[in-house]
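thought: fold this chain, then report.
action: predict
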Amino acid sequence: MPAIALPEAWIRRRGAFMLTCGLAAAWLAGMHTAASAQTHVVEKFYRGNSISLVVGSGPGGSHDLYARLLARHLGRHVPGNPSVVVQNTPGAGGLRAANYLYNFASRDGTAIGMFARTVPLLGLLGGSNVQFDPRKFIWLGSPASFQNDANILLVRKDAPVKTIEEARRPDLPPLMLGGSAEGGIGNDVPIILHDTIGLHVKQVVGYPDSPAIFVAMERGEVHGRTVDLSTVKSVKPDWLKPDGGFRVLGLSRAGAIRTCDPASGVAGRANRARARKERGGACADRAR
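observation:
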């Protein structure tokens, strides 16, 4: 969904036994009778119980959509068929949710979390806002892959620059890009673009989550943001239409950065032929 991100699910290590054994036992039950005893223990624990799925963003974001889709089906795959309840905990780009899960959430296997893929790295790097050790979480998996995604630079059509070339000129107004917490993908990608291609940007950080940044773009508080294409397609698909009021200035995928022609919405002339041969085609094709 990230962006790149795309989200990853974690569970407190001390409470991992019940849920991980439950998922494993459900899978093994049809393969080996020895799993039946373990299944019975886990089923007894979860029957009539519920699992809290802590999400590091507010309602309406792509992480929230992923979480609610997962919550709809996860309980059927855990012995005892517990209900799964989404608990939105936005703030600091997912750090607030990670801190909550680590320090306050139940440790008996009835609480799991879904964060941006950068959160574990932020935990390792540390900082005043980090109050968890990612090495004491157990990774369960991810509901999506970045393999067929791309990170895009999405701006309002009334932004002061219309192309990447103009956005690199220091004599023109900077692009005001919204972000959340320091270390988040939406904050780091503009810095990388500044350092690698000289993008002239000014960051406005501190938004609690991705939906808040989208609202800031709608209100004109910022010109745009860097964000995963899958996120925009999930929560703001109309923004990718020709009359949507926004444009994609560039995209990055698999280590390559491409500019986009704002008039036609396709990859820059130098990259057009190659882009059409690759999966997803040109910028306009990706946006559909």
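thought: worth noting. Residues 267 and 273 are 9 Å apart (CA to CA).
final: tokens above.
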